[in-house]
């Protein structure tokens, strides 16, 4: 059996997958205590109970481990609203409520990692490209959903607003609010009060005005 490439979990044994996951869990746990720049590989291996050489079996360096964590978060964010993203799924207002609640809970669960990811995106071109690609993908799924929704598409057409531009603006606003929320958690240990209700109101009023649903 060939040795897997560092950072590639596809050929790992179940034990190897568990050890790789332990290293990533240790790194994310350390992010709760200190900035990414202050975390060393030895810190990660001590926390995970795995040798330094063991770390290098799975990752070529700390940045690769961070990238693996970011991939997991990106996949988690994309999967949160998979039912709502389905262009054939009915009842947008009810589905978006579930998607928003799940999204806020996920961001809060991974607050330290998301703050580290956004900080890295501000200075690292590759991380910024990954983040932008994720947001662009989400905006495209929103635009498709709005285009197929009779209420959303009709009210946007009446306003003369392009669906794709509206979807990106709404998403950027939501991401900005959730970034403020996770930064509050990291800095003060408390989330933004009333965030879920405010976001839900914004989406429901912007996309499905009550008068249109009556």
Automatic annotation (TrEMBL):
PROSITE patterns registered for this protein in UniProt: HTH_TETR_2 (PS50977)
DNA-binding residues (ranges): 40-59
Entry protein name: TetR/AcrR family transcriptional regulator
Protein species of origin: Patulibacter brassicae
Matches recorded under Pfam families: TetR_N
Record carries keyword Protease: no
Keywords tagged on the record: DNA-binding
Keyword hit for Transferase: no
């Amino acid at each position: 059996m060939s040795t897997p490439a560092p950072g590639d979990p596809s050929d790992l044994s179940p034990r190897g997958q568990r050890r790789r996951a332990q290293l990533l869990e240790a790194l994310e746990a350390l992010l709760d205590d200190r900035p990414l720049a202050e975390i060393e590989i030895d810190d990660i291996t001590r926390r995970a109970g795995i040798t330094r050489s063991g770390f290098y079996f799975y990752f070529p360096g700390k940045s690769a481990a961070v990238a693996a964590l970011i991939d997991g978060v990106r996949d988690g964010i994309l999967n949160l609203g998979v039912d709502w993203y389905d262009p054939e799924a009915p009842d947008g207002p009810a589905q978006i409520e579930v998607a928003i609640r799940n999204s806020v809970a996920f961001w809060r669960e991974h607050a330290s990692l998301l703050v580290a990811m956004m900080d890295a995106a501000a200075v690292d071109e590759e991380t910024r490209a990954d983040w932008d690609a994720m947001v662009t993908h989400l905006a495209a799924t929103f635009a498709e959903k709005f285009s197929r929704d009779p209420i959303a598409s009709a009210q946007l057409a009446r306003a003369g607003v392009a669906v794709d531009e509206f979807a990106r603006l709404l998403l950027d606003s939501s991401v900005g609010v959730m970034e403020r929320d996770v930064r509050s958690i990291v800095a003060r240990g408390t989330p933004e009060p009333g965030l879920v209700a405010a976001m839900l109101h914004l989406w429901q009023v912007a996309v499905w005005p009550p008068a249109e649903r009556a």
